[in-house]
Amino acid sequence: MKKNIAVIRGDGIGPEIVGEALKVLDKTAELFGHSFSYTDVDMGGCAIDKWGDPLPEEMLKKCVESDSVLLGAVGGDKWNNVPGNMRPEKGLLRLRAGMGVYSNNRPAKIWSQLASASPLKKSIVDKGIDFIIVRELIGGVYFGEHKTDEKDGEKVAVDTMSYSESEIERIGRIGFETARKRNKKLCSVEKSNVLDCSRLWKKVMHELAEEYPDVELTDMLVDNCAMQIVKNPAQFDVIVTENMFGDILSDEASMITGSIGMIPSSSLGSTSCGLYEPIHGSAPDIAGMDIANPIGTILSAAMMLRYSFDMPAEADCIENAVSAVLDEGYRTADIMPAEAADYKKVGCSEMGALILSHLERK
Ligand code: NAD
């Protein structure tokens, strides 16, 4: 099968981790007789430096015309003082909106080899952590009006949150459909005791539930959910929530599984062209040091094969190689246990090379 992948290396550790993922994709294509071509796309700080814009229109076009997009990460201190609408992260928001991806799916699954890396007590981890957060991606407060005015001699900032019934319904459906393929438990997370957006959210979710009688729907307030994720994560199967709540909860969920460097994500809309990226940022503190964990990006590439290219055997091949390398005790610094006697510390490129060498077609 031939596929064209738009590749956004981005800033900070982005180029290092994406480089390793592309090697893994190439070897997988070779093993399974596919042909992947890559179109380089500038986005983020590097695009501001080169083009004066975090995502020039022609770059967005390359993404929309591709079969899917693989992204490292964007941003960094260098661009902290550029105007808000020109910040690197604006490129990412515009990319998501331009691709029409409205659902971000983040697995929070503990790898058995990394159970000791979880900051939670062993008694909690032993009950199992395996849930998905389905986050609405292109609505809510991040896409509302932002303004700062002067009032009574001081600055007043306003950010507006809005959700329509149809926006809630389409993400709600992804939540129900995802739960249907898993353990049929969907937890809808909102703040309906305070926000109108959340009251509408809850109403639409319950209307939708009538179409999915096989899925058990529960409601949870976002503050309670933040507590329950650390108290009893085993209770969750699928969580569906709006943009900002999902942003925060999915970072919390990633920490309880061990390392932010391990977690992939997919963003999907109504076509098979998806956006695949690790959940972490550009980690400027470790950029260029060859110590970043490339696994989140490599697993994002595996998700692309599974969800956008319908290549489950190829995705399994990559995930099995990651698992085999972890079994052999290789760890990047972020997942290295304190008692390191049985483990071998490796850098970004060495971790990539190890995964590459464990790829095999079964
Ligand atoms: P971050 O995720 O970049 O880093 C947080 C911490 O995790 C750092 O200590 C970092 O070294 C570590 N870390 C992250 N990824 C790692 C990896 N693969 N391997 C090992 N350690 C890793 O978050 P931040 O520091 O808050 O943000 C840095 C920049 O990234 C900011 O400019 C932010 O806006 C941007 N950002 C971009 C995205 C994106 O591109 N999708 C997402 C979040 C943040």
What features would you describe in this structure?
With 362 residues, the protein is α/β, with parallel strands linked by helices. 40% of the residues lie in helices and 20% in strands. It is built from 12 helices and 14 strands. It has helices spanning 14-32, 45-51, 57-65, 88-99, 122-125, 165-180, 196-209, 222-231, 243-256, 295-308, 312-327, 348-357, and strands at 2-10, 35-40, 68-73, 103-109, 130-136, 146-151, 154-159, 185-190, 216-221, 238-241, 266-268, 275-276, 330-331, 344-345. The strands form 3 sheets. It has a 10-stranded mixed beta sheet, with helices on both faces. Strands 6-7 form a two-stranded antiparallel ribbon. It starts with a strand and ends in a 5-residue tail after the last helix. The model has no long low-confidence stretch (mean pLDDT 94). Nicotinamide-adenine-dinucleotide (NAD) binds at residues 13, 17, 73-76, 89, 92, 260-261, 277, 280-286, 292-293, 296, 334.
Concise account of the structure shown:
The protein has 362 residues and is α/β, with parallel strands linked by helices. The protein is built from 12 helices and 14 strands. Strand 6 (146-151) and strand 7 (154-159) form a beta hairpin.
